[in-house]
């Protein structure tokens, strides 16, 4: 465990040093292919650094933050787009935005219907009920995650469908909690107002709603400018604007699937079997069909959310059991995750003992 933590520190020191190079050197190079060329060594480093970590709870966030989000943000940065585009923020802000799952909340323009405070005066943080509610929900979700982890002690007596349900809930809760914890220090230190990374995906009423507005919104915000918008613009010139969204949707899901294959390689260190890519291809195709159907029946017929909501969640869970989880369970990743929780608990118990004051008689 100690060696893994040392590797973790080395990985992030290397990543931060690379981002300093981007800030002080690459940012001075004219945008376009020349700047992209100077970023290639950083792309390589960000892709390879997670291979130095074996722990899933340290390696998985690192792979996601650097190998996926970091590389895509720097790709946009090469062309002065995305969250790192000029005017450049301060160095610490640049590093935080580049390698952490945060998206700064944009204030609406003054005197618009979305801006209830045209003077742009900041509301004191202590009077922000939304933030307080999110914090309370996060605590409740952490308790649910602890209950799920405890339930794994009895997995030999559980039906496979129950285990699948636990894995789905575990994946959602763990990802949301990790992303929130990663963003919290930056938010506290710099006072950033950031967009939430999730928006209660269990309330989704359609696949379009689930993937576009509720699940892992950091990925959505990165894939939209890097894949969806360029493909939609190209498609509009070929097939017209009415249907241009369809190839853009499918292309976005394909890229997401390939990115997940890379993440899965960090988990398993075995050759990909492409099941997770097919999971996202399937969901991309179904989302595209959903968009077509919605356009065809607009204002004429719509499923009630009490029906469409459960159907959406069941579809995601069933296809997840079919295509999303097998690469992980086949290679024992689920067992490794469960074991790491106990190792982490023992590590904390040994290295952070409780020193209780003892009264003298």
Task: Based on the model shown, name its key terms.
Wax synthase domain-containing protein, globular, mainly alpha, acyltransferase, 0% strand, transmembrane helix, 361 residues, 13 helices
Q: Can you walk me through this structure?
A:
Keywords: Acyltransferase, Lipid metabolism, Membrane, Transferase, Transmembrane, Transmembrane helix. With 361 residues, the chain is mainly α. The protein is built from 13 helices and no strands. α1 (2-24) packs antiparallel against α2 and α3 packs antiparallel against α9. It is globular. Residues 112-129 have low confidence and may be disordered.
Q: Report on the biggest sheet.
A: none
**Content-based structural category:** mainly alpha
Can you write the helix and strand succession as a string?
HHHHHHHHHHHHH
Give the rounded overall mean pLDDT: 86
Number of strands: 0
Helix content percent band: 55-70%
- Summed up, the helix count is 13
The fraction of residues in strands falls at under 5%
Unreliable spans are: 112-129
What characteristic shape results from the CA principal axes? globular
Output the radius of gyration. Answer: 22 Å
């Amino acid at each position: 465990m100690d060696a893994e933590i040392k590797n973790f520190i080395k990985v992030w020191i290397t990543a931060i040093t690379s981002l300093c190079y981007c800030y002080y050197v690459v940012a001075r190079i004219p945008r376009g292919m020349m700047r992209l060329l100077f970023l290639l060594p950083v792309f390589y480093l960000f892709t390879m650094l997670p291979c130095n970590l074996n722990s899933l709870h340290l390696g998985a966030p690192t792979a996601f933050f650097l190998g996926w989000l970091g590389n895509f943000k720097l790709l946009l940065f090469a062309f002065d787009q995305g969250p790192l585009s000029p005017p450049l923020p301060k160095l610490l802000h640049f590093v935080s935005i580049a390698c952490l799952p945060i998206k700064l909340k944009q204030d609406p323009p003054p005197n618009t219907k979305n801006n209830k405070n045209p003077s742009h005066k900041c509301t004191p943080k202590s009077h922000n009920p939304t933030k307080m509610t999110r914090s309370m929900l996060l605590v409740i979700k952490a308790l649910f995650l602890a209950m799920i982890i405890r339930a794994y002690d009895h997995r030999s007596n559980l039906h496979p469908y129950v285990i699948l349900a636990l894995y789905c809930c575990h994946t959602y809760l763990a990802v949301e909690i990790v992303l929130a914890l990663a963003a919290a220090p930056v938010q506290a230190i710099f006072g950033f107002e950031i967009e939430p990374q999730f928006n209660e995906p269990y309330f989704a009423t359609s696949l379009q709603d689930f993937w576009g507005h509720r699940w892992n919104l950091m990925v959505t915000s990165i894939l939209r400018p890097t894949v969806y918008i360029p493909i939609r613009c190209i498609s509009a010139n070929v097939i017209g604007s009415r249907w241009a969204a369809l190839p853009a949707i499918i292309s976005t899901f394909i890229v997401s699937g390939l990115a997940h294959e890379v993440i899965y390689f960090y988990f398993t260190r075995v050759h990909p079997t492409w099941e997770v890519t097919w999971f996202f291809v399937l969901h991309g195709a179904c989302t595209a069909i959903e968009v077509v159907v919605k356009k065809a029946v607009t204002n004429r017929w719509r499923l009630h959310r009490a029906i469409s909501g459960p159907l959406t969640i069941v579809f995601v869970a069933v296809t997840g059991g079919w295509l999303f989880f097998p690469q992980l369970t086949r290679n024992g990743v689920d067992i490794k995750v469960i074991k790491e929780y106990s190792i982490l608990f023992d590590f904390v118990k040994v290295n952070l003992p409780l020193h209780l004051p003892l009264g003298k008689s």
